Amino acid sequence: MGGKSKKKRDTPESFKEKGNSAFNMHDFSRALELYTKGLELDPAHVILLTNRASAYIELRRYEDAITDSAKAIETDPNWIKGYYRMAVAHRELSRFQEAIDYVHRGLAINPEFTELLALKKEIEADMEIETALPLDHPERKKFENLFNWLIEGGAKFPKIKLRFYSKDYRGVHSTTFIAKNECIVVIPRSHIITLEMAKATPIGQKMVAANLNLLSPKHSFLSSFILQEKAKEESWWKPYLDILPESYSNFPIFYTDEDKEWLTGSPFLDQVNEKIQDIEEDYNCIVDAVPEFANFPLFEFSKIRMGVSSRIFGMQIDGNKTDGFVPLADMLNHRRPRQTTWSYEESKNGFIIEAMEDIERGIEVLDSYGKKCNSRFLLNYGFIVRNNDANEYPFKCKLREEDPNLMTKRSLIDGNSSQTFRVQADEKENVFNEFLGFLRFLELNDISILPRIMEECQEEDQPGFKPSKVKPISLANEKRVLQHVKKLSENGIALYPETLEEDGQILERTDLTENQRNCVLMRQGEKQILHWYLKFADLALALLDADRKEVKKAAKGSPYESYLTHCIIPLIGK
Ligand SMILES: C[S@@+](CC[C@H](N)C(=O)[O-])C[C@H]1O[C@@H](n2cnc3c(N)ncnc32)[C@H](O)[C@@H]1O
């Protein structure tokens, strides 16, 4: 009897009500089930159809939502919610033109329908972003060719698209929701340029045969591959070659003298000049062994070298480590922490990218190029990371010519007179200990303790002097070390024409070119480290005369807590 009366209550309306309650409780799967039950009783129930479409949208099943909405519109062409859901689902799939068409069809029925009016504005904003570069711009055409070439070769990337921020700066965006662990991109092996391929080219073979002593062999081989392919009238790789940037003017090796002036005082300038020389040295080395390589001008070689340094992937194919270009995978821009992960996947016979977290529709899909200081980002990738916690400053520590123990000390550091420590504003980094350890050694007057120091440096597999193993020696030695740190920091700061505060003000200007801005950000990062060390030296020097209690108090919560606790307190106690 009870069963019978229950059946009586099961109507499309009752399922709709129950479905709506579940929907309001955000239980979209249950709502979907209930709407489906209602539709089994009345398949053309337009409210149930658009309500189920709504549940599908919440569950990110947009194609199903489109099917239901289409049916609702077909059943009742005046059912405005059908157009609304259609537009929403299409928008979620980044089919903006279809989405806006449905908005217009809905508004034709009721021009006042507020949800449609709001949606119209949002879709129009989406479309404006999409068309930052005109739809018929030749750059877009090049990417269409690249994508077709990749897809014909078996590549898969159904949920991403390229967005043009400008002609030369592009990024990858999700066209729809991407779930954590989903594979976003597969690039078949046939479309990857590897080091082995570069070595197998006519010039590559001659380079291998000449057994060249190159400073950057991988980068040079891959550059020679690109140059050779570009020179061919018809290259199979043309769709990829065409999308490589034409201008590398944001890379410091191509900075004008004017740009470089913005780096006055910065040790980064030395890195830039070294890079220019290293590339030229590799170029000359290749030309000496393979004279026809001179057909490629040094300028072109240098540009492609920057293309390689900013796009190269290290991977393992068939168990062998290699490096190469992976078209499209190299369109993802950098951000830390990692949002995606990539690898060569033997089972897929290709290079894959997977999402490490849920990625909402429309947002930029990013890759992490690693934790690097801005000098490496700027030099090799042509951009700067703001508030970069991995910035470094190279402190060059020189043995003093007048040091009576110069020769003994020099012999312990392999005949060198100086050592450079790329320090960070972080006492937990090992380089902090190496830097201070080296200064303790450098400031050591009583060399009778050198044998003990050397003994403490010894490790089974690695004999020799290790600065990080040199712990505080004495109060007097540590004082000289801290005075040395202070001097190095002050000297470094004095080299820049502008102060740290002035850099902050300059960055507020709106008339800076990208290169000028990057130079200021670069030197600002260096100065921040120098000031960190200056503060460190001043504080620690002042505490050398304090009592333990005072040092403990100053240490607590300070950025130098570990040093003060483990280096200063034991010295005071001695
Ligand atoms: C692997 S490519 C990425 C695709 C590149 N945006 C393009 O349009 O070809 C690396 C280059 O992208 C740019 N880039 C990547 N991440 C960036 C970021 N976080 N900020 C600024 N530029 C970035 C730099 O010009 C870099 O040399």
UniProtKB/TrEMBL annotation:
It holds the Pfam family TPR_16. SUPFAM superfamilies: RuBisCo LSMT C-terminal, substrate-binding domain (SSF81822), SET domain (SSF82199), TPR-like (SSF48452). It comes from the Eukaryota. This is SET domain-containing protein. GO terms for molecular function: protein-lysine N-methyltransferase activity. It comes from Blepharisma stoltei. One of its GO terms (biological process) is methylation. InterPro entries: Rubisco_LSMT_subst-bd, Rubisco_LSMT_subst-bd_sf, SET_dom, SET_dom_sf, SETD3_SETD6_MTase, TPR-like_helical_dom_sf, TPR_rpt. Residues 158-370 form the SET domain. CDD domains: SET_LSMT. SMART domains: TPR. Keywords: Methyltransferase, S-adenosyl-L-methionine, TPR repeat, Transferase. PROSITE patterns: SET (PS50280), TPR (PS50005). The keyword S-adenosyl-L-methionine applies. TPR repeats lie at residues 12-45, 46-79, 80-113.
